[in-house]
Write the C-alpha cells for this entry.
Amino acid sequence: MFKRILIANRGEIAVRVIRACREMGIESVAVYSDVDRRALHVRKADFCEYLGPAQPSESYLNIPKILEAARRSGAEAIHPGYGFLSENAKFARACREAGIVFIGPSPESMEMMGSKTKARQNMRKANVPFVPGTETGLTSAAEALTVAEAIGYPVMLKAAAGGGGKGMRMVRTSAELASALEAAQSEALRSFGDSEVYIEKFIENPRHVEMQIFGDTQGNVIYLAERECSVQRRHQKVLEEAPCSFVDPDMRRRMGEVAVQVGKAAKYFNAGTVEFLVDAQKNFYFLEMNTRLQVEHPVTELITGIDLVQLQFLVAAGEPLPIQQQDVTLRGHAMELRIYAEDPDNNFFPSPGRITRLMSPSGPGIRRDTGVYEGWVVPLDYDPLLAKLIAYGESRQQVIKRLRRALSEYFIGGIKTNLSLFRRILQHPDFEAARVDTGFLDRLLPEPRATDARTERRVPIVAITAAIFAQQAPPGAQPTHHDDGLQADGPPAAASAQSGNAKPSGWKAAALIEGLR
Amino acid sequence: MKYEILIDGHPHQVHLERVAQGYECTVDGEAFALDVAMTARDVLSIIHQGRQYEAKREYSLMGETHIIIGSERFTAEVRDPRSLRSRRAAAGAETGPAKIVAPMPGKIVRVIAAEGDEVEAGQPIVVVEAMKMQNEIKANKKGKVTKIAVKEGSAVNAGDLLAIVE
C-alpha cells in the first residue's frame, strides 16, 4: 500500500479522501491556492503544498504544478477527487510518465468514454442499449433532419465533448432544427473548443439512474447497485438516493450487467459510474460514463457497507478486488442532500462569504461530509458545494424522517444556502411517494409554499427575541463581519437604510433604545 | 423597556422587563414570562410555558436583521423614526432612479445593456460570474439606463453599483 498520497482537489472531497488516508495509516498531502490557505482540507492534512493563485488554471487545474507538488512532497499516488483534473486523460498520462500512480482508470479508458460520440460507437460494438440517434457528429442540417425524422421528435442535440448542460438543445419540430443545431455547435465550440454535436431522441421526463461499477487491474468488474439522481436543477444534481425505488431486483441485475459490460468494453479499472436514462416503461438507455468517483458516492457506501475511497486505493496499488459480485448485498436506504452556497429565494444566486454561525446535525443515521467550518470565508472562485448531508436508515420513509429531523438541527448563518429547498422537497407528496423524474424540481419550485402552522405561535417569540437582541446590543453581541472586507462590501441601500452605518453597531442600537425611551 | 418591532412588515408593541428568572414581557398586550439563556453569540434558548425555542439572529446581505426559529426565517426591524425615513428614501425606487447593485461578489463577464438604452423591468443588464455560475442581473424597473458603472472583466463586491435605471 502507498505511504503517502497527494489529493489534487479541495473542499469536502479532499477532506473525504484525507479521512480515508488516515484510517488506512497513509499520510495525506493537501494542495491549496491563495484563497484556500485556511480551508478545511488544508487543516486536516498531514502535509501541504502551495500551488498558486486562486484561478483554477493556476492552481487545481495546473498539471505541472500538481506534479511538482507530488514530487516535492514525496507522494507516490495522486487522488484527483471529482471535477478539476479527475476526468482529464492528459493528467492521468502525465502522472504515469512521472512515475506517480493516478488513483483512477487508465488514460485510455478515460479517452474512450470522454467523447460521447466515441462512447456511443463503443457501446454499439458492445451491444449496449443507448438512446437512439447518431454515433458520429452531425455534418449538416440535412443529415440532422433525416435522422430526426427517423427517430421521431422531440430530439436532443448534444455536444460530443459536453457536460453540465452546455451545447445542448431540445428540438420539438423540424422547423427549429437548423437554427438549434447552429446554436448548439457554436456553444459547444465556445465551451469545449470542439463543435462536434450529435443527435439523440429526447426522452420525456426520464429518470436519471446510475450504476456504480468497480474494476481492478486484473480485469474483474463488479457493480455496486444503482443511485437515483433525478432531482436536478439545470442538469445539476441536488439530491441522490440509493437504492432507486423504481428499480426491482431483476432490473437491477440487468442494469448492473450492462454496466459491467460497458466497463469491460472500456477495459475499465477503479471506480466508475454508468449513467442511464430510464423511461416510464422501465426501459433503460446508456447515457454516458463518468470515469471518476462521484459526488454522491456516500449513498452507495452506506447501503453496501463498502468504503469506496479505500477500495480505490487498494485497486490503484494493484490489488485485486477483495469481493466478488455475489458478496455484494444491499441493506437499508440512503439519501444525500447537496448543500450549496446559493440563495433559493433569489434565483439560486451564488452566495459566497463568511460563515458566521454553523450548527450541524448529528445523531442516528446521519453522516456529514463537509469542507467548511464556522468563521471560514467561502471563496467565490470555486464550486458552491459546501457539504453533503447524508442519512441512512432501514427504509426510505425512515431516511426522509431522519433528514427532516437533521435539517431542523442544521443552521448555516452569514451566507445563503439551499437548506430550505430540501425542507420543501422532503415534504412534497410526490417525493414521499418516490414519484420523481428529472422534471420534478422544475415543477416544485413555482408551487406556493405551505404555510407552517407554528408560524403564528412563533411571532411573539420572534418579536421578543428581536427586542432582547436590541437591548443587549452593546459590546460583544454584534455581528463580526469585520475583517475580510465584508463590512466594506455593505450595499449602499443598506447603508442609507441604517442612517449611514452599514452594520448596526453596538452604540447605535443603544442610541436607538435611548431615543425610544 | 418599550419597543416597536416590525416582524415581516407587521408592527408589534413589545414591552420587556428583566427579572431574576429571565424576562417578563408583553407583546401587543399579551403577557409572556420567559426563561432566556444566550447559548452562543446570536443564539438564544427561550423557554415559554415549558416549550423551548432556539432563536438565532443574522444579518442579510442587504442589512436586514433576520430572526430564525426552527427552519423559519422572519425579518425583524426595531422601529425608529429616523431609520424609517431613510429606509423610505432608499426604497423609493418606484419613481426616480433605481440603483442596480451586485447581489454577490464576482466578476463582470458581460455588459448587455448600454447607457441610453430603454429597458423593460426584468431585462438583463449585466452578467456576473461567481462560483462557476453566470448570473444575469436584471433591471428592477422599466426605464432608461442612465449609467453603467462596470466594465467587462472588472471584479465587484456584493452591493457595488452596477447600473442606474431611471
